[in-house]
Design a protein that fits this description.
Elements (H helix, E strand, L loop, with lengths): L1 H9 L7 E3 L38 H13 L2 H21 L3 H56 L8 H5 L15 H13 L2 H10 L7 H46 L8 E3 L6 H14 L2 H7 L7 H26 L7 H4 L1 H20 L4 H6 L2 H61 L1
Antiparallel strand pairs: 1-2
Helix pairs in contact: 2-4, 3-8, 4-8, 4-9, 4-10, 4-11, 6-8, 6-15, 7-15, 8-15, 9-11, 11-13, 11-15
């Protein structure tokens, strides 16, 4: 019993070894006994030539992923934009009120806490999906390579040089991946502006002029925008992967018909990365944040007279730490190395030390309203900066991913074209030989 409890406590942050294999592509009369992916590969595939996102076995995980998806939807994003406009107009009337500034500052801190948890889980989910895709593609590449080498060795297929391969064309599949919608393109332009180096420099030049109100509004906008732009790009990536999956499956089926090689696709093992104790601790915290645990703790505060300030202080300090951790996890998961200093593990440690410094400062002020605001306003400013860096990283990662997806798709199409041209040549030679015999 004790070991089970200990194992449960150690579970967050664990990065187990993963294994995946792509489902075999066999003609309808040869599928008996073929069960697609094994259960421990965690992939659902009713139709083996159609891409399906990773299906998580636990109901709680699927529910939390749905909550994250909703938080990044257009409706939630538009609701926050309307809220920010109302916020701005109320500021004209009540901007000099201490109570108004405290409510706005605390509300912003709570919203940030919720979005931090959402972004953390969103980041992990998208990474897990990409790892599954990489594993399945590598699994199928191995059997493609084996069958092509067999066809070349037996003299049925000639070798082709790089120039000849580049000139190959085919008409069965569309030559381009799906196009982005105009709204997605517009989000991309806004994302490029927010993540630009000059925007980040301008933020540090002018933030002190608007620290009391504009920083809070900016923070809410940035987090809502980042959640939305990630969710908006996710369906586009899935459509691209569906096109790649169909081309990849079609290539395997063509090669199978030529070689009769029904060997199951091999299992690709993705080993666990070696991590130090500091990084393991960061990953542990990140997993807890991704389960929305911080939001649950925040909601457990009793509704006393100082509830708003207390919850705002808690949310502000935790949000500051989440900003450091989000940047670290983004870099560790391999999305991008933009802002490497900001994502370094010891930078996260420095952030924790800064939090204790703010707590000591507020304690010296006997946790007055000013002391509690000290634990709210500076964290909001720093977290806004980290969110801008996150948007920069998202832009770089998204651009790189689009290039990778296009190159993978283009290469599959050229390989299909090569196989079809070789089969056509075989048939022509066979027909010529039959005529000569006759």
């Amino acid at each position: 019993m004790f070991n089970r409890i200990l194992s449960w406590l150690r579970a967050p942050g664990a990065r187990a070894e993963l294994s995946y294999s792509a489902p075999n592509q066999l003609p309808p009369d040869n599928v008996a006994g073929a069960d697609g992916l094994k259960e421990d590969h965690r992939t659902s595939a009713d139709n083996t030539d159609t891409f399906r996102s990773l299906v998580k076995p636990r109901l709680l995980d699927r529910w939390l992923d749905r909550v994250v998806e909703i938080s990044g939807s257009e409706y939630v994003y538009l609701a926050f934009l309307v809220g920010l406009v109302v916020w701005a107009f109320l500021g004209v009337r009540y901007g000099t009120s201490t109570t108004y500034n405290i409510i706005i500052s605390d509300a912003q801190a709570i919203i940030n806490l919720v979005f931090d948890a959402s972004l953390m889980r969103q980041q992990f989910s998208q990474h897990d999906n990409l790892v599954m895709v990489a594993g399945c593609l590598r699994s199928r590449i191995k059997i493609h390579k084996r069958m092509l080498e067999n066809l070349i060795a037996t003299g049925r297929f000639p070798k082709i040089d790089s120039e000849g391969f580049r000139m190959l064309r085919q008409t069965e599949f569309v030559a381009q991946l799906p196009k982005q919608t105009w709204t997605t393109k517009l989000s991309g332009l806004v994302s490029a502006f927010l993540g630009h180096i000059f925007t980040i420099i301008g933020f540090w030049m002018y933030w002190q002029l608007y620290i009391n109100s504009a920083t809070s509004g900016l923070m809410v906008f940035l987090l809502a925008f980042l959640a939305n732009v990630r969710e908006r790009h996710n369906p586009y990536s899935i459509e691209c992967l569906k096109a790649i999956w169909k081309a990849d499956s079609a290539l395997e089926l063509r090669l199978w018909k030529l070689t009769g090689d029904a060997t199951e696709n091999c299992v690709i093992v993705i080993p666990q990365k070696q991590r130090g104790k500091v990084q393991r601790a960061i990953d542990y915290y990140a997993d807890l944040v991704g389960t929305l645990a911080g939001v649950v703790i925040c909601s457990s505060f009793s509704l006393s007279g100082s509830w708003w300030l207390l919850i705002g202080t808690y949310a502000g300090l935790v949000g500051l730490n989440d900003g450091f951790v989000l940047r670290n996890i983004c870099q560790v998961l391999g999305r991008t190395s933009v802002g490497y200093f900001c994502s370094y593990r010891w930078t996260v440690v420095f952030g924790v030390i800064s939090i204790f410094g703010l707590i000591f400062g507020a304690t010296a002020m006997r946790w007055t309203e000013t002391g509690q605001l000290l634990c709210n306003s500076p964290p909001s400013t720093i977290e806004s900066f980290f969110t801008l860096i996150l948007i920069t990283g998202h832009n770089v990662s998204e651009a790189r991913q689009r290039v990778d997806l296009y190159q993978i798709y283009e290469r599959r199409l050229k390989m299909i074209s090569h196989v079809d041209s070789c089969v056509s040549s075989e048939r022509c030679e066979g027909s010529d030989g039959a005529k000569q015999v006759a």
